[in-house]
Amino acid sequence: xxxxxxxxxxxxxxxxxxxxQGVFTAIEPQSATLSPSLNASxxxxxxxxxxxPFVEPxxxxxxxxxxxxxKWNQSGTLFEGIExxxxxxxxxxxxxxxxxxxxxxxxLVENGVQYIRTHVDVTDPSLTALKTIAGLKEKLSKVIELQxxxxxxxxxxxxxxxxxxxEQAIEHGADVIGGIPHFEFTREYxxxxxxxxxxxxxxxxxxxDVHCDEIDDEASRFLxxxxxxxxxxRCILTTMPIALSYSGY
Length: 249
Fold this sequence. Notes:
Elements: E1 2-7, E2 14-20, E3 23-29, E4 42-44, E5 54-59, H1 78-88, H2 94-110, E6 113-121, H3 128-140, E7 145-151, H4 162-171, E8 176-179, H5 187-204, E9 207-210, H6 223-232, E10 236-239, E11 244-248
């Protein structure tokens, strides 16, 4: 396959990009715009920028396009937002989730995104969202690479059977272990959840991505707890905005 009339970052002239079996084999400057009469193995970039795909590292696909359902977050605060979501969550169905996810993914792809990491709430005894989105992975694999975080929105230790639901999420296809220590009922629960999350990830060879200290509370100090848990269990964490990603041990 050849991509013609492509513009590259930092370059003023046009280029032809040659691809064989999914690998770029040559990038050659063009002396002029090539004829738009294409054969089946050519794509005309029409002078537009050709670059690496974008990555969406943090989205909640289970909750997309639900603003105002059933009520708006009047205060604009994190905690009211979580409360509004807890009211919407019982209304989830596989059809509802799939329709919203596919619409959102289409928007992302149209804007150059090909890699998505989505947090999916697993504080739901039926795991409706987790199962539905995991089931869409293969369907979407031709256009995006989807990575799923098992996200315990209402806590691991504070939510009934929270630990069991996290383990079930792994069985249903979760790639990453999440957490939200500052939303647990007590600091002790928050600390326990961080050590448990790292241990679970190490046990299954999975990544860790935690919503950690994302609130305006100076007393929320779980980042060092998570880092210490990783150090003690010889796990490596790389920092990201708000969250952390576990990259091996």
